[in-house]
């Protein structure tokens, strides 16, 4: 798989609580250069990134992160503020306590409220699958589908484990046809990324993707330019 194709599915991520503006700028510059699907950043950096990069950057941010135990009202307020500040995509953490309490109606209602708050922006729901039983994961799939979210996301990357291929298979079997899958957490090699994309994931949450693929992506760009130059030369010769 070409590096550029993999990177087009990557949410280039930096969610460390100590991340500086210089680190955010580096992340954003890499995302623009390598055309990643988005940058995924803390809410506090959304407005500054939008002001700095305008429309050339697709900005994703997190809500209720990483625990998910904020109230629905707080999550919706934060989501609306993120959109107002320029976020294109929202990754919101599901309340796992509600799931443990068996209150899937509350979870579904919260997802629906979040989707209403973000409007036509993409909404991804992080279920933190490592904390859930198989039955709870299936219930989460139903809640994400019925609540109208665009994606189900495996993990925050801050839990006790991250994405697994078993969870992706389970999600694919139980989500609605309009719901896509984002695998995140512990994805550290090119082979990992290729495997999750081949399995049917539409997005990959990763902090190392650009570092791993930059050299290959640059080589591909150089070769593409050579091919275009050659094709242009051949066309010019034919039309003389």
Brief summary of the model shown:
With 240 residues, the protein is an alpha/beta fold. The protein is 52% helix and 15% strand.
Task: Write up what this structure looks like.
The protein has 240 residues and is an alpha/beta fold. The protein has a single domain, classed as TIM Barrel (Alpha-Beta Barrel), CATH 3.20.20.70. It is built from ten helices and eight strands. It has an eight-stranded parallel barrel with strand order 1-2-3-4-5-6-7-8, surrounded by six helices. α7 (134-147) packs across α8 (165-174). The longest helix is centred in the C-terminal third of the chain and has 31 residues, at 209-239. It is globular, with a radius of gyration of 19 Å.
Assembly context of the chains? single chain
CATH superfamily: Aldolase class I
Q: What share of residues are in beta strands?
A: 5-15%
Reported for the largest beta sheet, the result is: 8 strands, parallel, barrel
Give the CATH topology.
TIM Barrel
Q: How many β-strand runs?
A: 8
SSE sequence, one letter per element = HEHEHEHEHHEHEHEHEH
What portion of residues is helical?
A: 40-55%
Net shape: globular
Low-confidence stretches: none
Distance, first to last CA: 38 Å
CATH class: Alpha Beta
The secondary structure category is alpha/beta
Rg from Cα: 19 Å
Do you know the CATH architecture?
Alpha-Beta Barrel
Average pLDDT metric: 95
Count of helical regions: 10
- Count of discrete structural domains: 1
Characteristics:
240 residues; TIM Barrel
Summarize the helices and strands and which ones pair or pack.
Blueprint: H1 3-7, E1 10-13, H2 21-34, E2 38-41, H3 46-53, E3 59-63, H4 72-85, E4 89-93, H5 96-100, H6 104-118, E5 122-126, H7 134-147, E6 151-153, H8 165-174, E7 180-184, H9 190-198, E8 203-206, H10 209-239
Parallel strand pairs: 1-2, 1-8, 2-3, 3-4, 4-5, 5-6, 6-7, 7-8
């Amino acid at each position: 798989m070409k590096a550029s194709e993999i990177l087009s599915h990557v949410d280039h991520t930096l969610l460390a609580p100590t991340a500086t503006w210089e680190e955010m700028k580096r992340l954003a510059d890499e995302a623009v250069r390598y055309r990643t699907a988005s940058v995924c950043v803390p809410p506090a950096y959304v407005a500054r990134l939008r002001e700095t990069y305008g429309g050339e950057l697709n900005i994703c941010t997190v809500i209720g992160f990483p625990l998910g135990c904020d109230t629905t009202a707080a999550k919706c307020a934060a989501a609306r503020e993120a959109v107002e500040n320029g976020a294109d995509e929202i990754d919101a953490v599901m309340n796992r306590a509600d799931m443990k309490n068996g209150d899937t109606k509350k979870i579904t209602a919260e997802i629906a409220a979040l989707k209403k708050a973000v409007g036509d922006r993409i909404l991804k729901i992080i279920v933190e699958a490592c904390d859930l039983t198989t039955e709870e994961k299936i219930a989460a799939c139903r809640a994400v589908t019925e609540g109208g979210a665009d994606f189900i996301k495996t993990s925050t990357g801050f839990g006790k484990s991250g994405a697994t291929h078993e969870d992706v298979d389970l999600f694919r079997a139980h989500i609605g046809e309009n719901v896509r899958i984002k695998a995140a957490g512990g994805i550290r090699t090119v082979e990992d990324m290729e495997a999750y994309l081949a399995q049917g994931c539409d997005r990959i949450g990763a902090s190392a993707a650009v570092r791993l693929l930059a050299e290959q992506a640059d080589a591909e760009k150089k070769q593409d330019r050579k091919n275009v130059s050659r094709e242009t030369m051949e066309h010019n010769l034919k039309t003389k």
